[in-house]
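Dear colleague,

Thank you for sharing your sequence with our group. We've completed the structure prediction you requested, and as agreed, I am returning the results in plain text so they can be pasted directly into your records. Please verify that the sequence below matches your submission; if there's any discrepancy, let me know and we will rerun it promptly.
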Amino acid sequence: MILSTNKNNPNALKLVIGGEISGNSVEIRIITTNESTLSRLPTLQLPTGITLISSNAALQYLLPGNEQDLENKWLEWDSTQLQPAIASYGNSGALDTSHKPRIWSLLSQLNSELKTKKYLITPDTHTSADIAIFCTLWCTICSTEVSAEITKEFPHVDKWLENISILPHVQQSLSKFPLENGFKAISSLNSSSWFPMNSYTGIRQKTAALEPSSPTKEPEAITKQELETSKKNWSTPLHPSIKPPTYPVLPRKNERNILITSALPYVNNVPHLGNIIGCVLSADVFARYCRQRDYNTLYISGTDEYGTATEAKALEENMTPQEICDKFFDIHNDIYRWFNIGFDYFGRTTTPEQTEIVQESFLRIKSQGYIITESVDQLLCQNCNRFLADRFVEGTCPGCKYEDARGDQCDGCGHLVNATELINPRCKVCSKTPVIKASTQFFLDLPKIQPKLKEWASKAEKNWSNVARAVTRPWLRDGLKPRCITRDLKWGIPVPIDEFKDKVFYVWFDAPLGYVSITKRYTQEYEKWWKPSEGTDVNLYQFMAKDNVPFHAIMFPATLLAANEGHTLVKHIMATEYLNYEDTKFSKSRGIGVFGTDARETGIPADVWRFYLTYIRPENQDSNFNWVDLATKNNSELLNNFGNFVNRALTFAVKNFEGKVPEMELREEDHQVLVLVQRELSHYIVAMEQGKFRDGVRHLLGISKHGNQYMQAQQPWVMVKGKEVKTAGTVIGVCCNISCLLSALLGPFMPDTSRELRKQLGLDGSTYGYIPEKVSILLSPGHKLGEPTPLFSKIEEAVVEELRSKYGGKQDNGTNGGKTEGSVEELQGQIAAQGLKVRELKSKTDKSVWQPEVQILLKLKEQLAKITETSIITVNTATIGEKNKENGPVQNGKIDIPALEAAIAKQGLVVRELKANSEKSVWQPELNILLKLKKELSDATGVITPNAVDKKSKKKK
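Please find the predicted structure tokens below.
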């Protein structure tokens, strides 16, 4: 067997060791970078003539194991997580400490695995996984200045590495393939193309025709057909341009018409990052993508302004409801403009158009027989001469006798209550005692509509996100009930029936029709979108968080089906889970989290916010905003990967080719990188079409990574100094064209940066590039480039810590008896608002939706309990146990509660990351540590924390 490799390559050492263990003779051939094509090293040529181009696949060939699934898992972990992290960590002989948290998290995973056993797979032999991970670690960071830290913090990893390093097979291999550990090895890892096991592994025949090593969903190796297609596409370039915008945008026959809405944000608060990515930003990313694909696209949204919450906020701020709406509409509008949210029209629901459409829709549905009336008992304040909504009633809880229970929930015991059940109820406005009085309300007869709705949903849901389907199915499965659509309130759209003139429509019935009225505000030809003529197809995409799914999957479609006027129904519900803030809940009153008005103050560009929020978009499960991770993604993915590639390519062209795209004569190796780019482009388009924007970002970054690897392998700066100037020009010309493609693919995520890159490419910076399906020449030889400048700047660690502290909540400094002035009142307000949210969700959704909100409510109550005590609690350390001296901050017989809470937050981040990337055997030990920390906090404060309760007791309860 012939092993071809560059010097100091840890991936080559693993194959030498594999050959020693298996008894296979391996001939080592050292290749300089210039001799390689894509520097896809190491490669292993078998006696049959087949060449294995993935080091981990070759290692498995040499050391086939019995536990194939486990080996695959750890080999993939090595190639897709550990090696990329280390390659980014060591840069030009120095450590980039912004990547350290990622490295330490991965080492923590490995340490946890080795804590319970001295091996990864089996005790009898060292498998391919053991050898691969050993070489990756032992040759690189374990031979740098952080080796002492690794020994101290990860003792099980350290001992495991030592045991493998003294094996005779390893020592013999090192004598055959001596290498210089540390930064030299990391540099070799960077300059060679290590490929993820499930991405680019494969075999190469002597004829250079590549065949896949195993059947997968797509060929893993570059095939002859792919190369031929690449050559054809490149030689017959297409230069499509985006059609100029028209006003108004109207649907056209025989075209792809895309109507996009984002859930109307409510106007009684300032949106936080979770609100922004959950609806308006996600919708904007998709709208920009559609426009760059030249689809006929309209994106509308606006503020939801009627309802009890607006009245309550107006009362709190001593303003009229309309004044509150005007105030917060401006706040929302300014925030979205700063985030570059490109609505075609951003409206509001307090308009004549909204009143007209809601009233007309109601009368139409009533005439179709889908409206019924029922009598409802409500509390009437005779002094105020108004029926009281739940949040305007207070009284004594019928259960725990807490005296300040609200009309929807008791904050004393946490139970839901009905306003009419309160003991000694009182009006929140005047404190007078209300009386119970029956009130007749209109209901939408959902049971009557259900057959039509169920038939429609069974066909439509295939285009919905997973969370949208999960939330909707229980509603239809369990059977729908009549839904009240009117209220005895002042602030809302009046019911157009004389005997009901003192009532208004309930906000859930009113708000979704806002999509129609806002479209009408945009154009009087709105019905072309909402009641399209025959032959005109309109695809409606709606973006929201999961708590809004019932309104868009059940209520709004039921309303339109009942009207029976051929309305456009939603085809794609693109719902997300929730975004949390550093393991906790966003809270404006407590200063926790970044809200829309804060983002600009951080000094971080809007495009970086857009990129990171999309990168962590909670598509399949709740995700977490983290400052360290934000800085890491900015510094590694944007600055060192994307920005580094395009800046190197354009700068080189300016300095060496008179600022023009050089002449190009593409070779086989040039088309090989274009094939890899084509794969990423194809995956990018599929992901974007399906609303999987996280994958879209990753495929975009994958293209720039291929570009970096290609440029590093070809080394045009060496070629240009010798006799290979023409070849260097080809390499740079290809890189400039890849950069041009990237400028278009970046547009949906980072529009300002996309325009800036296009200017540097010598293109019109006022427009975005068309997103093509094929990789072809976009910049012809001789095209004049602009002036290249860095696109991104580094986020320093000191800035991260400053921002983390600023937005981490109001800290207790021990003054004022351990209380922060106003915090009790603020928390009580948060508890009240969260309680209302829980009650509403419980009445409308299933447990999977409202249960997380219950946990948030419990946490708020715990925080309220904590701040009524001193933050540093004196305890007998003997009663807590010696373990607290390790995990719990104990000083002079005292426990530092804030420090312990910080430790819990940090450990929670470790657990969540492990759960996302590994099996239970890896994350369970770390979860146990987290539970112990929470138990210590519970013992110290006397407050029971979630998950600190004994599991058996919880089950019994």
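Summary note from our side: The chain has 36 helices and 27 strands.

Kind regards,
the structure core
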